[in-house]
Design a protein that fits this description.
heterodimer, A: 357 residues, alpha/beta, Rossmann fold, 2 domains, six-stranded parallel beta sheet, 11 helices, 39% helix, B: 306 residues, mainly alpha, ABC transporter involved in vitamin B12 uptake, BtuC, 13 helices, globular
Amino acid sequence: MRKLSKIAAAVSLAMGVAAGPALAEDPLKVGFLYVGPVSDFGYSYQHDQARQYLEKEFGDKIETTYIENVTEPADAERAIERLARSGHELIFTTSFGFMNPTLKVAKRFPDVKFEHATGYKRAKNVSTYSARFYEARYVMGQIAASESKTGVAGYVAAFPIPEVVRGMNSFMLGAQSVNPDFKIKIIWANSWYDPGREADAAKALIDQGADVIVQHTDSPAPLQIAQERGVLTFGQASDMIKFAPEAQASALVNDWKSYYKNRVEAVMNDTWESSDTWGGFKAEMVRMAPYANVSEETIKLANETVAKLEAGEFHPFTGPVMKQDGSEWLKEGETADDGTLLGMNFYVKGFTDSLPN
Amino acid sequence: MNGFEALVLTIITASTPLLLAAIGELVVERSGVLNLGVEGMMIVGAVAAFGVAHVTGSPLLGVVAALFAGVAMSVLFGVLTLNLMANQVATGLALTILGLGLSGMIGEGFIGEPGQRLAALHIPVLSDLPLVGSIVFSQDILVYASIALVIGTYHFLFRTRSGLILRAVGDNHTSAHALGYSVIKVRFLAVMFGGACAGLAGAYLSLAYTPQWVEGMTAGRGWIALALVVFASWRPNRVLIGAYLFGAVSILQFHAQAAGIGVPSQLMSAMPYLATIIVLIIISRNVTLTKTNTPACLGKAFVPDR
C-alpha cells in the first residue's frame, strides 16, 4: 500500500511536471505516522481505518501515505521530514512521543499543516487532538454494575499514568451511579502489550471473584479469558467481538474518521487553523461498539447516557465527587476542569487500593 | 473448579513456554553454541502454528508447522555460525530481529482472527478424578511434551553415550575433534533441537496460552528462557524448577495485587525475576560444581584444522 502510494506519488509528480499548469487540481497529499504496526488491531489500526475512510470518501481528490512502526522519538523527525519534503500538505502524527519532532519539522515547513495526537504543544501550523475515552468508560462502568452479580469488576491496567487513572475513575463513577458499593480489583500489568501477562492478570482477577473484566492494555487476550470463563468484558480501541462472541458487552472504539474528514476539508477550503481538540461522543471521536450479551434494561441505560454525552448535556465528572480519602473534590453540580483531568493522579472514593506513584 | 486448581492451572500455562524454549537452548549451549535467537525462533513458531491451525483448522498440524519453522530458523543460524563462522552473538541477535519482522509480515492476514485452541487431552476415568484429574491428567499435549523433554534431555545428556559426546564437544571441541567426533555435525543437530523446542514454545503461545496472533506476542519470553538456562547452571532439572518458579511467582504476584496488598506494583512485577534469580543462585552456590557444568567452549567458533 505504502509502496503503491509512493509509486503513485512519483507518477503524479512526473505527470505534473510534464503537464505543467494544465493540471490545476492536484490531489491533496495527506501523510500519517504511526507508532505501531497498522495490524496491531488497536490504536494504530484505528488511525489507519480512518485513513482508509478518507481515501474512500475523497476518492482521487486526495492521496494518502503512511509510515508505520516509527520508533518515538528516535526515527520520528526523519520520517516526518520525509513526508513534508515529498509534498504532503497535511500530516497526522498519531502518537504522544512524536510531539517534539513534529514541532521541529513544522518550523522548517511553515506551509505544511501538522496534526499531532494526544500532545499539548501547538504552533501556528501544528494542531493537537485527542479523544475523551473516559466518557466511554463511564458507560462501561454503568453496564458493568448493572450486569455484575458479585459487584466486583477486575481491571487489567497498563501503567499508573493520568490517561489510565482518569479512565478508572470514570468507570468507577459510572458503576457507582448504579451500585454505590461497587468494587474494583486492579492488576497493573506494567506493560501496554503482552498478551500472556494480560491473560494471566484476567485469570487472577476472575479467580478472585470479579465477574466483569475491563482492560486498559492493548491485546485481545483478556477478552478470550473472559469468554472461556463466562464473564462479561469490553473490547479495547476497536470492536473485538470476534474474540469474545458471548462475553463482550460492548467496546470502547476510537473513531478518528469524522475529525480527519473535517481537517482534510478545512485544508481543501483553506479554512484550516491551528486548534486544540479534545472530543468525546459529541465530536464522534469515541463511540460504543454494538451492545451484546447484556439485558435490555442495561442497553437502555447505556443508550440514555450515550445520548446525553452526544448532546453534550452530561459530564462524567460531575459533583458531588469525593477523592479516595473522603475529601471533597467536586461540589454539587460542579464539573471537572480539563487541566485536572489531564494530570489526574488520584482515585475517587470507592477504590480500596492505593494508587502506585 | 476451586481456587487452588485454577491457580495451579494458570501457573502451568505461564511456565510451559519458558520451559520448552529453555530446555532446547540448554542442549544448544551444552554443545558449545550460544544462540541468542530464541525469541526470534519462538515468534516464527508462534505465527506458523497460528497460521497453519487457522487455515487447516487443525491445531495439531499447527504444532508440527511450528516445529519445522523453528528448525528452519535454527538451520539458518547453524549455516551462518557453524559453516560460515559468523559471530554467534551477532547472528543470534540478528535472528531475533529477523524473526520479529518476518513473523509480523507473515501474520499480517491473521490479525484480529480468533485462533484455534489446542485441545486438552481427556483420559477416561483419570481426567475425572478430583484435583489431580484436572491438573495432572487434563493438560494439552505440549505441557506433557515439555515435561517429557526435560526428563528425556536429562537422560540423554547424563545417561547416554551420545549425550557424553555432546557435552565433550561443548567442553573441549579440539579434543572431541581429535577423538574423531564431528564437532560441526553434533553442534548442528543440537542447534536444530533448540530451534524445534523454541518453535514448540511459540506454538504454545499462539495455540494454548492466548490463542490469537498479534505481532511481538512473545514479549521477551525468549530472553527469559535464555537467562533461565544460565541461572540453572545448564542442568535440566534446575531449568524445570526455574521455569515453574518464574511462572508461579508471576501468577502469585497478580493474585497479591488483585487482593489489594499494598506493595507497589512495579516491585511486584520485578518479583518473578528476583525470586527466580535468588533461588537458582542459592541452588547452584557450589562454585566448583557450577564450573564443571558450564560448557567451557560456549560461544567459541570451531575451525576444524584437518
